[in-house]
Design goal:
The protein has about 550 residues and is α/β, with parallel strands linked by helices. It contains 15 helices and 22 strands. The protein has helices at about 5-10, 20-30, 40-55, 180-190, 200-205, 205-215, 240-250, 255-260, 330-350, 370-375, 415-425, 445-450, 470-485, 500-515, 530-535, and strands spanning about 60, 65, 70, 75-95, 95-100, 105-110, 115-125, 135, 140, 150-155, 195-200, 220, 235-240, 270-295, 300-310, 315, 325, 355-360, 385-390, 405, 430, 455-460. The protein has a 16-stranded mixed beta sheet that branches. Strands 2-3 form a two-stranded antiparallel ribbon. The structure holds zinc ion.
């Protein structure tokens, strides 16, 4: 044994301190950190704290290069835009005007294409089915229709959500079903705007969510050509309004929806119907920051294994019933930030890995995965040689579970590794019970996945060693109803952090094995991300 101390060290699993995890979550979620809103004084405080912890843990700075030296942060310029006052929105049918109320029948987002005002007069409306163009699935809802100067009207989710059988994962949502994809495709098709028809089942959330997340201040990363991914007008309409609009144009909504579930579907103009919008936009650029710690690999420093978690939360907002206005974000995501710091310590104190390991603490997740989007669009370390990304968001601070999950569903080698290693910890993988909700597209790992990098978000299990599924589900319900995105997401003295400490051992094992191997885990052959990854295969030796 004395002859091979390294092998011994490599097989020894680090232990994670529950005291440190608790102290860090407590500090980050204390009222002094004001809910960690990006580009507020709380950002400076958060960065100072996390950087001091990463330094003490033994990490090196891995951020922006300044005069040949790495900083601890990556500057993230964000465009913030807001509709000034109440937008004037109308539909006209053969000259008869109906006024639409923002937030009621329609929710229009502040434009993200760089417009400082919107003046759309009588734009024609064209129903484009699910708005999907997927050559690898031989599917094209547009069939060459000209959408310039027109508003595309589109269904939410993907073409086989309702039938449950087809080329888009059946009930599970592919990226083609997500509204972000639909807007991007509308921009590629040259449409002036896009209105998504809200239906609760395929969207997986009600109109209140649509209203709350679309009628407030919008943020995006600063892009060279924002109009390439955003049409000027992006919004949602209620299903009832869509049914009326179709009817006035002599069309039946349900019949057209059925047609849209087939390859033969062709875009349909809503005859006699047009849309107008007029409002001013207040737009400015703010700068937030990702925090980046790193350990340089001993043999292949240019290859990277990444752990990520967002540091931001909702800041200070509307008061709850107790008058509390600070959205502390203890679980979401002080837990993930503490996990990142302690993971850094484990790597810094353990045997040096052959590949580099990056600890990326991103900003503006709550504003639409923007810190991770910015990093992926402006990577500090090449994405082609980033072997995998393990993201953590809202870990469970209670005791250990017998299972774990990931956000959404996906098929990739990285998940196979996680499942295999979990067995050695007596843990099993629980698949997403609601793959149609598209959770895979709603966490920071997705910014990497859509660019082909194997990436997943690990989630704590609910089958508790102490109390079984009943106790785990009760805690989930309590969190979802009383704390999630509310001021009551606060640190609790009763939290043991023993489950998190064990989950981090598992995540260390997966990341450390990958950092000491020459393997490049990939997506499954039928994954929508496989093609993108394979394009850079020559860069991976
Ligand atoms: Zn989160």
């Amino acid at each position: 044994m004395a002859a091979c101390p390294l092998a011994l060290a490599a097989s020894t699993k680090p232990t994670f301190s529950t005291e440190r995890l608790s102290a860090e979550v407590k500090a980050l979620s204390s009222d002094a950190f004001e809910g960690r809103g990006p580009a507020t004084p709380a950002e400076t405080k958060t960065i100072d704290y996390v950087v001091a912890q990463m330094k003490a843990a033994g990490l090196q700075p891995g951020g922006d290069l300044k005069e040949g030296k790495r900083a601890w942060t990556q500057a993230v310029p964000l465009r913030r835009s807001e509709i000034v006052g109440t937008p004037a929105l109308t539909l006209s049918h053969d000259g008869k005007i109906s006024v639409l109320t923002q937030g009621e029948q329609i929710s229009v987002r502040a434009p993200m294409d760089g417009s400082t005002s919107v003046a759309i007069a009588d734009a024609p409306l064209v129903f484009v089915g699910y708005g999907v163009k997927a050559p690898e699935r031989r599917w094209d809802d547009f069939k060459g229709v000209d959408l310039h100067g027109k508003i595309a009207v589109v269904l939410i989710n993907d073409p086989d959500f309702e039938t449950g059988k087809g080329d888009f994962g059946g009930k599970a949502m592919t990226y083609y079903g997500r509204w972000t994809y639909k807007y991007e495709e509308a921009a590629r098709q040259g449409a002036l705007g896009m209105l998504v028809i809200h239906e609760t089942a395929p969207a997986s959330y009600g109109w209140a969510t649509v209203k709350n997340s679309n009628t407030n201040t919008m943020f995006d990363i600063v892009r060279d050509n924002p109009a390439a991914v955003h049409p000027e007008l992006e919004g949602w309409i209620q299903r009832d309004l869509a049914v009326q609009m179709f009817k006035r144009a002599g069309l039946d909504f349900d019949t057209l929806k059925k047609q849209a579930q087939t390859r033969a579907f062709k875009p349909v103009t809503l005859k006699g119907e047009s849309f107008s919008a007029s409002f001013k936009v207040d737009s400015s650029v703010i700068t937030s920051h990702n925090i980046v710690g790193r350990i340089e690999g001993s043999k292949r420093p240019d290859e990277t294994v990444m752990y990520s978690a967002h540091w931001d939360h909702l800041g200070v907002g509307a008061p709850d019933a107790k008058g509390d206005r600070i959205y502390n974000g203890a679980v979401d995501n002080a837990t993930g930030t503490a996990a990142l710091i302690e993971m850094g310590r484990a790597f810094a104190q353990g045997p040096r890995p052959e590949r580099s390991v990056v600890f990326l603490n991103v900003t503006a997740e709550e504003k639409g995965l923007l810190g991770s989007e910015y990093y992926s669009a402006n990577p500090l370390y090449p994405l082609a040689t980033t072997a995998g990304v393990l993201n953590v968001d809202a870990l469970d601070p209670h005791g250990p579970a017998r299972n774990f999950n990931i956000s959404g569903s996906a098929k990739l080698g990285l998940l196979d590794d996680l499942i295999a290693d979990a067995k050695t910890y007596g843990m099993v993988y629980s698949a997403d019970p609601k793959p149609e909700a598209g959770h895979f597209f709603r966490s920071d790992h997705f910014s990497f996945a859509k660019r082909g990098v194997p990436a997943i978000s690990f989630g704590s299990g609910n089958d508790w060693v102490d109390g079984d599924l009943a106790a785990g589900r009760a805690a989930e319900d309590d969190y979802n109803t009383k704390r999630y995105h509310q001021p009551a997401d606060e640190w609790q003295a009763s939290w043991t952090f023993t489950g998190m400490a064990r989950d981090l051992q598992l995540l260390y094992t997966v990341g450390n094995d990958l950092a000491n191997s020459r393997a490049w885990p990939n997506w499954s052959a039928d994954s929508e991300f496989r093609g993108t990854r394979d394009k850079t295969a020559a860069e991976r030796k």
